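User: My instructor asked us to take a sequence, write out its structure as tokens, and then describe one feature of it. I'm not sure where to start. Here is the sequence I was given:
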Amino acid sequence: MFGLMPREDKFFDLFEVQAANNVTAAKLFFDMVQSWSLEPERFRRLQEIEHESDITTHEVYDKLNRSFITPFDREDIHELASELDDVVDLVQSIATRMQLFHIEKTTPELVALSETLWNATEAVLKAVTGLRDPGKTRRVLDYCIEINRLENAGDRLLENAIGKLFHGTPDALQVIKWKEIYEGIEIAIDKCEDVANIIESILVKQA
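Assistant: Let's start with the prediction itself. The structure tokens for your sequence are:
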């Protein structure tokens, strides 16, 4: 009987919206750090994206509470939605922190980290989009491998950025500010890897 009941495939649509919001936020942040300005318009746009993502995340939770048949484990659905939401939260938080810190110019290290985050969100979107098609399992796993590679690249970029911060006799306040900014972006990249790990776990359970 249960095999004849329809699954609630709307979850896939919502996951794709979340992942697309992450790409939009990461791309906007990358554009911001390439041509840095404290003008409020782009900060407001990031806040709007973050708000839209929160709405979508709550929609996932609401649908999870009301659905009898789900495309995969309920715990995985909740965790995937939560981790996807964390990415845009972190991007918006770091942008706001830079605004509060009155950052006057960015660094090549931040540009490189931001580009890596953007690339990771693109790979996440591709992996999430492939989740609805059982025939794309191998391709989805390839995207997960790419996300892991980007996370490793982010680790190396962070190490280089922190090392440069402490070179010579740096200003302590600037070190504190930039260390928090760099680490925040790297955590967002880590979140992309967390999403990839959840997706891999889902595929293993469905195999």
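For the description part of your assignment, you could build on this observation: Helices lie at 10-34, 40-66, 74-100, 108-130, 137-165, 172-206. Try explaining in your own words what that tells you about the chain.
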